[in-house]
């Protein structure tokens, strides 16, 4: 019996099979790496690029969502070279030319978050999978932002968050594919603290009413830390159910608690209702510990302030941006928005408009739509001319750092929009913090499709 | 002691709102046998009667000031309400009292809405299972709130109370205590008094008028009342209208306490159903008693001392009480035998 040397030996077959298995295992990694021609989800092939605007079109924040959508439509106009150009004229540095993004005309699709995490994820998924959206942006809630940016990380689609104020969005829940231009609860506390000390002194006793969900907890913690650092004492922190409507049963215990400041860690309807009712209980006319009783609303929004009517007059809070800012970027945006819609933009509109432009500019700088390269272009990017002074997208957590506005409810409004006066533009250096304090991992640049 | 008195006051004023809404809900269930999930929407529609009247009273004459421009380059607007331009101080008083005046608008509007709702939709579901009634009335509630959102937007719209009632009353001084120990908003006291008056008026109407007597007879035995030649259906339609009016005026007077938005009715709906179930399905005194009871319990459960013992009790107290009462008294506090037991 002779042994045949020309056919496959058992050893060769085993070697070949092993090599095949190893290759099959490695292949997906290789295909998703930059070395292989930058294939990625929804790579634009025609002459347009599609962006997905995921905003609350129904539900309690529908009016805020409508303002976000107006801002996005304006941004698309400006990116495509229509209208007066808005902040394209003031953004520094800028690679935007008014000819779309990388020469492709900007188109968009919209989704309705309903301000519900599951609905927001579903609409984002639909826009990515069915409508070919290359980037998702928008929203009016931290719960939604965290949910959508988690999805976007899985799908390899960049998410430029809208209004989200929880520390967690760029803290423990931060993601490589998520970017937040809006400020956060920590920054509100850091900005408000010194102003509160100046206005109300350092010997105060604070009572917190806090919305019982993620954002409320981080807002309470940040305000508590900031005010206790001033020397204030925290009398009590009470969690209130979201959407409680009538907060009177939580306000009555404040009356004789010995507190002389009430901090309302509420947003939206809860803020409108709790503030209205606290004022009705005579808290602002009260004297406790020999001092005038004060109410503080850490996060103010002009749209929400309208709902509280006269009750916001004189109340201190913080905000991301206000249309009364006099810098060139803010004025250019207010002019474009006001001319198109007949009223000034909200802070949510400003954030969304800026996010759309920043994404487009990052694509231009990267020279590609390839998400990992666009992410790298955004990370650590420094810019100016978009309101609130020089700004930076910090690479470590994708949080934007810029000046924060401390505002007071206007005592003598000249119009229905003139509700907040800027008390102080708190410099960015005062609200910066070490990215590691809120934990979290950004995750990988490369994700498998 | 002062804390307990404050919470008691708070519970009574909350209970007043619950009882008012639950009263209408029970009235509809007791007469027509319909589980009306659109009842909260009627409360919301009433609130928007107040919003509408104020919008009408504050319609403004707009004059453009070309000397001063807005930040976006258009002339600023100088706005003067017509009613103040035409009637001077009297016009200002009308605007100031727009909320109580809105009751005059809400009564006919809500009566018409109630009758149209009953004749146009709900009468077709009398003999259908309760599950179908719930589905159709819940759907109607969603339609109504979307209509309101279309015309008024999603944001709350503040409705100021008359200036004379905008402060807080020093109840402590009235009770011989030190000043500022027990202060309570005037409008909440007004609301409590208003709810007592409306509840009393509804009971008096049912107790002391021939119409009310027939309705009560129909609630007890519909067939027998029909056999003696009384058209009970027409009277029950009127009762649906009355229930809508009660919910509507309750909504009108609540607007200064809670800036209304399209979702206002849903906020109260589940809660008032619990009130009705605890009170006993179809029992008007039960609904009122349960309204006040749950209002007071909810208020006391929110006290720091109580929450220190049982954390989170404030968020579940109403449902906890409902479970206990249904276990001990399955028909509710004052439920009638045979209601929803077939």
Automatic annotation (TrEMBL), chain A:
Q: Where is the Leucine-binding protein domain?
A: 48-410
* Gene3D superfamilies per record: 3.40.50.2300
Lineage, top-rank taxon, reads Bacteria
GO biological process: one example:
amino acid transport
Which keywords fit this entry according to its UniProt record? Amino-acid transport, Signal, Transport
List residues traversing the bilayer. none
The record's comment on protein family reads: Belongs to the leucine-binding protein family.
* Name this polypeptide is given: ABC-type branched-subunit amino acid transport system substrate-binding protein
Origin species = Maritalea mobilis
TrEMBL record, chain B:
Query: Could you confirm whether the keyword Membrane appears in this record?
Result: yes
> Does the record carry Ligase as a key word?
no
GO MF term (any one): transmembrane transporter activity
InterPro entries in alphabetical order: ABC_transp_permease, BCAA_transport_permease
| Segments passing through the bilayer | 15-35, 42-59, 90-113, 134-152, 189-215, 236-256, 268-296, 308-328
**Where does the record say this protein resides?**
Cell membrane
Instruction: Kindly give the membrane topology term recorded for this protein.
Output: Multi-pass membrane protein
Q: What are the GO BP annotations of this UniProt entry?
A: amino acid transport
Please name the Pfam families in this protein's record. BPD_transp_2
Listed under GO cellular component are: plasma membrane
- What does the UniProt keyword field contain? Amino-acid transport, Cell membrane, Membrane, Transmembrane, Transmembrane helix, Transport
In the record, the note on similarity to other proteins reads:
Belongs to the binding-protein-dependent transport system permease family. LivHM subfamily.
* This protein's name: Branched-chain amino acid transport system permease protein
